[in-house]
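Item description
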Amino acid sequence: MSTHSNDIRLSLQGASSEIAVIALNRPTKRNALNDGLVLGIRDIFQNLPGSVRAAVIHGEGEHFCAGLDLSELSERDAGQGLMHSRMWHAALDCVQHGPVPVVAAMHGAVVGGGLELASACHIRVTDESSFFALPEGTRGIFVGGGGSVRIPRLIGAARMTDMMLTGRVYKAAEAERIGLAQYLVPTGTALDKALELATRIASNAPLTNYALMHALPRIAEQPADQGFFTEALMAAIVQNAPEAKARVRDFLEGRAAKVKKE
């Protein structure tokens, strides 16, 4: 698999290589994002092996991702800036709307573009060392990697506005409470938890996972009557898959595990 960067690594885990583990590997730069790394993310998600059912993104070293690498930021005119932002949009769209669900394992800095990357994932796990910020507002720039669309859907426009206007930093527990993460775990265990979740996700019927990734966000934005109709279509399509039929038979005939309090 070719990428545009040596700063990102892909490994496969699981008995059937069903878990893709994507590591941001610029620890001396706090995994700050440059164009090569962003294009590397795009290339990996466009070329995932067919065995993969779920993916995990994490950062090597002490941080998940400290945002845009400002040392590589060049002056651009408006047209160049527009196209650069759209390149980021296309790359992170490959994460959000790719073939498999993605879990972010976050620790240390989850800042600026790092938070934009995390918000493109479907599940976010943070350990207690994480801190979250959007410093673009205090640096005279604006988010350009999809954050103005994705982050308000997690925490609301008012909270994002506050983060950008004031430079507010959220600690891990606060971030989990407001919706920047769904899981809060002890320091040093985010990757383990993310792999546990990815393994569970990979055991689902693939078409169900695909519907949750692609249909559910669209249904949430549709008027109710359109949403109900889309839901009915997706329910009919998903339950028609052979694997779904086999799973329902297993449940009806007592072979499937029942839901219980963990």
